[in-house]
Amino acid sequence: MSRPWIALILFLVYSALAFGWRSLRQRRATGSTGFRGISGRPGSVEWTGGVLFVAAMALAPFGPIAEVAGWVAPLVEPGAVVVGVGIATVLAGMAGTLWSQVAMGESWRIGVDAAERTQLVTRGPFTLVRNPIFSFMSLTSAGMLLIVPNALALASFVALVAAIELQVRFVEEPYLLRTHGDGYADYCARVGRFVPGLGLVAR
Length: 203
Hints:
Elements: H1 3-30, H2 45-59, H3 62-69, H4 80-104, H5 132-147, H6 151-180, H7 182-190
């Protein structure tokens, strides 16, 4: 099987599990899919982060599709070892994303509703980093880029990283600080943002 087909199949499985299965599980548990949409007014930082996230997810399958169709060529031709590392990275990212989503329990959401109050989750992977879902999503996207290193896959990765930075810094962290106050501030002071030990916020 060619690299682009492997990447496309991995992405479809990832999407089905991380978004489809997780949303169905959330709906059965709470009556809601967990989708909260894009925050902020059009043109705001919050809105831009949401739009970039949607763009990243939309672009992701087009990287491999475009290579299969012959519309784009890889920026560099990856060897078998690089492709193998990419596949392993995607699988690790997928597993980590699902682990983190399950750890969130009923607090899992895509987007933020400012009027909603959810439990502050600090268990499982959240003992290591404050945003493990986003960390593992970035890892998955990086793995995809190793398998299909073309311009579309690169654009998807860059858009995702930018979206995550904006979403976390300008939407989720302010919301969680307003909602959980000192409890969240203490958590930020001892647990890294995306990588253990990095992104601590001094009180």
